[in-house]
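A reminder before we start the practical. When you read a complex entry, don't treat the lines as separate problems. The point of joint prediction is that each chain is placed relative to the others, so the output describes one connected object in space. Small molecules and nucleic acid strands, if listed, are placed in the same frame. In the example below there are two entries. Take a minute to note the order of the lines before looking further.
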Amino acid sequence: MKFNIGKPEFIKVLQRIQGIVEKRNTMPILANVLMESSNGRLNIMATDLEVFIKDSSPADVSEDGSVTVNARKLFEIVKELPSDKVDVSTSKEDRVTVKAGKARFSIMGLPSKDFPVFPAIDDSRLEPVDSDNLKEMIDKTSFAVSTDETRYNINGFLLEKEETKIRMVATDGHRLAFIEKQDLKSAVQKEGVLLPRKGVMEMRKLLDEKEGEFLLGVTEKSAVMKKDATVISVRLLEGEFPDYKKVIPKDNDKMAVAEKAVLLASLKRVSILSSDKIKGVKFSFLKSRLVLSSSSPDIGDAIEELDLDYSEEDIEIAFNARYFIDMLEALDEEKVRINLKDPLSPGILRPEGSDDYTYIIMPMRL
Amino acid sequence: MPFKDILGHEREIRVLREALNTGRLAHSYLFAGPEGIGKRKTAFELARALNCASATDDACGECASCLRAASGTHTNIVEVAPTVKDRDELVPDPSGLIRIEQIRDILSLLKYKADGGRKAVIVDGAERLMPQAANAFLKTLEEPPAGSIIMLVTSRPADLLPTIISRCQRVSFRPLPEEALIVALVEKTGATEEEAMTAARMTGRSLSLALKYIGEGRGDKGRELIKRLQSITDVSEALKFAEELSKKDDILEALETLKGWYRDRAIAASGAENLLVNRDVYGYSDGSFEGRRREGLAEDFFSIEETRRMIAPPRYANKLLAMEALILKLVD
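Here is the predicted structure of the whole assembly.
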């Protein structure tokens, strides 16, 4: 294998895969990136067996071939190279030589035949998606995804379709975020699939990086996102997502409407003095005002009052402030609706004037 | 057909293939049996068969799936084995431990949907699961995610936590048939049939141990060891011998040799000379059986085993002290 490539292009394709390669204990080759030169292009691929990513860049190829080398080291080397052009070649025993200007690196590689293969992609199942909508859906739910490895069925997002709507749901057992959008075309199948957090976050990065039309496809085993020459394939999670519809309360008839910015700022202040681990803050809903208070036996207490629209009977309820803040920060609207039932039932947060985005949060006993 | 490449174990493999054919595979297996007889190989071939494109009850060994499995990069197959920690890296080492990080690797594979076929996990040297790792594994072992199978492989099932054992279906692997093993050894090493037989018997009919036995000339080493032990007459000699032993790299093997010898003596003392393993090796006519009763020999046998366990990971007892205590007891 032998090719010559511009340093900026080389950096760009190598940078994208850095998030994927992982120091895993079971398979040393996964720390490597697969490079393949043919037809005037350099194709690269990396995987941790959960997310697969491949990319490609034009290059001046003088000899076809393929090899794998340590992705992190190669990236570090290329970043620091002195000139704008990089020469890469392989010799016997998969040794890779990187040359630029007067600098010369020789790195031990591994044979490309031992590298996992990129899952086959059926192009006919890819459909264009609206990237802004998809971004919004990810951003408004990703913080609620569970990080508890033992509950793998909620370590990701539920993506499903109902009639003309696409829905994304995430939960960690204490809160649940749910968002619906009118059809992003039909890339999503009717039966829901579970997308793992890590893969979705890689897709999210790609959405930020590029403009224009993205292709998305979901099959029984994986979800695929494609943009120009960049392809991300994510293995789906096993298991059943909890029946979230049962969790959404129907009879939360006490409604309050608050200014998002005001509520967010004062919550952040008051939660400073809530006890360390669980950021419990007491919410006292009174006529036209809300009193937030927190206390920590070792440090002290805080109290703050703010105005809001509320005309039902008084209610006193405690929530984890972190969970509240996460949602308020993701919200674009200026006003937030809070629906409650009683101090021991979950609360519902929604933007004012829309039911597409729903956030359920379990109360605490303080 | 790779199941066919496995020496012996017709019975065990037949059981697994029947389960495979009738769709009645258990979700967790414990493959137990002496070291070096093909348990891991059987587990691996079962994993390959489950993912093979031929979709039969055996792996073809030639399709893309089988080849990827052979190079260790199959997305559906994950294998863990004991490791030692070298700074932050985990380096495979049979005398190391299976750590909780490795169990997390397994869990992170199992939570994804199978890439065709079935997900298979092989835990080799399962007796070396650290207690924390074993406990982290329990829930998964009891009820693995859909479409997956877990195979624990061990040569010391008694060292596993009972909570692990009770969650698995056990398949007991018997030692290899002596004749077949001798043929294989002669073929592989070019040893004479006589040497092959000794190696087979000395290693409890284990292929890999017998290969090692022949390769390292262990027969001679063992004889020397026994001779030394027998020649000890006073305490200072015993202590010196213990010190030498404690400095040996192959101290665990030396203890195995000693165990074999005590086992034979105990058996001979009960009059069952036809069951001797080392009949041709040490010359039992030299009076080594006199002076001790069978119970005493059996007790010594267990002392050796206890010492072996103490100095092996994860307990890492002081080798010198452990060996001194043992040798003094043995020559007493």
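Discuss with your neighbour: Chain A has a mean pLDDT of 89. What might explain this?
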